[in-house]
Specification:
alpha/beta, six-stranded parallel sheet, three-stranded parallel sheet, 10 helices, 11 strands, globular
Length: about 290
């Protein structure tokens, strides 16, 4: 069996182009420019790169980008005050506080302070609850991107058996809820699952989101399954440098899976594209246009 890679980079580029067209139309018809505010506390190198990319892609889509960079020593009260200010700002339709936060700041408290209507990360308990009961919600960007890729390549997902390996609030749980919404039969597996390889072998759709390099082996995959690898892990090479790998042993999956997202270039590019989609959705809902 030939295993075809799912090109998340190309799909994300197309999604961003469609968002830019809709933003342009929204400006013309309603005078509305969606605005995204990103809060970065500290100088984590990976977060800095990510925030730069977000700002660039926000501008390319024709949206307003508001960056707030705070020192690593910023008190929690100051971050909460900034969030309150952004909640009240009509030019800001989406708020994202970059994680992780420094130790003196309680991330749960900060996320809870964000207006759920502007919570474009989809982490607020109100959005999580709305997703769980099948109501419209702002959905975490990475699992939203996973579902978009699956529907693009498979069409209807109804009746398929999906196994999600990982139970985080950021990926695993919302991915399972979104798959349920698409009428899949869903199992959430994790480190305490008995016979994890056997559970994975039942999956028509296997979503790996555990953050452990190449944990999912080739013989864990059902022949013909579609594999969505959310993991981005940096591992050492023999020359002392590093390389990126996913949570799935990609080489071992070849000839077994029918479709698989590579790392890099699979799920990763979808995250910022879906952040822009959430910002557009939030702006339209706030103005009664969706």
């Amino acid at each position: 069996m030939e295993t075809k890679p799912i090109d998340g980079k190309a799909f994300a580029a197309g999604l961003r182009a469609r968002i830019a067209e809709e933003v342009s139309a929204l400006k013309a018809s309603a005078g509305l420019t969606p605005g995204l505010a990103v809060v970065l506390v500290g100088e984590d190198p990976a977060s800095q790169v990510y925030v730069r990319n977000k700002a660039a892609q926000t501008a390319e889509a024709g949206m307003a980008s508001f960056e707030h960079k705070l020192s690593a020593e910023t008190p929690e009260a100051d971050v909460l005050a900034l969030v309150a200010k952004l909640n009240a700002d009509p030019a800001v339709n989406g708020i994202l506080v970059q994680l992780p936060l420094p130790a003196q700041i309680d991330a749960t408290k900060v996320i809870a302070a964000i207006d759920p209507a502007k919570d474009v990360d989809g982490f607020h308990v109100v959005n999580a609850g709305r997703l769980a009961v099948g109501l419209d919600a702002l959905v975490p960007c990475t699992p939203l991107g996973c579902i978009m890729l699956l529907k693009h390549h498979l069409g209807s997902l109804a009746g398929l058996k999906a196994v999600v390996v990982g139970r985080s609030n950021i990926v695993g749980k919302p991915a399972a809820q979104l798959l349920l919404k698409e009428d899949c039969t869903v199992t959430i597996a994790h480190s305490r699952t008995r016979d994890l390889p056997g559970e994975c072998r039942t999956a028509d759709i296997l979503v790996a989101a555990v953050g452990r390099p190449e944990m999912v082996r080739g013989d864990w995959i059902k022949p013909g399954a579609t594999v969505i690898d959310v993991g981005i892990n940096r591992v050492p090479k023999e020359d002392g440098k590093t390389r990126l790998v996913g949570d799935v042993a990609y080489a071992e999956a070849q000839g077994i899976a029918s479709l698989i997202t590579p790392v890099p270039g699979g799920v990763g590019p979808m995250t910022i594209a879906c952040l822009l989609q959430n910002t557009l959705t939030a702006a339209k809902r706030q103005k009664g246009l969706a």
